[in-house]
Amino acid sequence: MYEDSNVNMILSSGFRDYQNQEELFNQEVADSVANGLSKEEATKETRTRVATPGMSEHQLGLAADFAIPGELLTEDFKNTIAGKWLNKNSYKYGFILRYPE
After folding, report:
1. Interior CA angle at 71 toward 68 and 76, to 5°?
2. How far is CA 95 from CA 25, 62, 86, in A?
């Protein structure tokens, strides 16, 4: 089914333990500070994009991020051919979209 769809996507991220989530979060904060935000502003801004360690569904094994090879992981994925295919067919593979928005 997937092979016949001509859809090209990759699993960008799956399960993350606490340490991985913490490293990801802290790196995003550090990048924002390097771009001129205060640590407080950077932390607040990062929380809009990355779950606070201990609060991520990736840590429960309930989240997966899909992307198109060679492209950045963004919210726009859902509007791509691959994103639309995944939305329509994921239940056939045991996945559901828990939080549509």
Report:
1. 75
2. 25, 9, 9
Q: Which ranges of 15-80 would DSSP assign to H, the alpha helix?
A: 18-34, 39-46
Structure tokens at 20: 């991985």
What is the rounded CA–CA span in Å between residue 5 and residue 27? 36
What is the extent of the structural domain holding 45? Answer: 17-55
29, 50, 52, 80, 82 from 39: Cα distances, Å: 7, 15, 15, 34, 36
Give the pLDDT band of residue 101 (cuts 50, 70, 90). Answer: low
Are residues 33 and 1 part of one domain? no
Question: How many domains does the chain divide into?
Answer: 2
Same domain, 11 and 25: no
pLDDT at 59: 92
Beta-bridge partner residues of 67:
10
pTM over 0.85: no
11 with 31, same domain: the answer is no
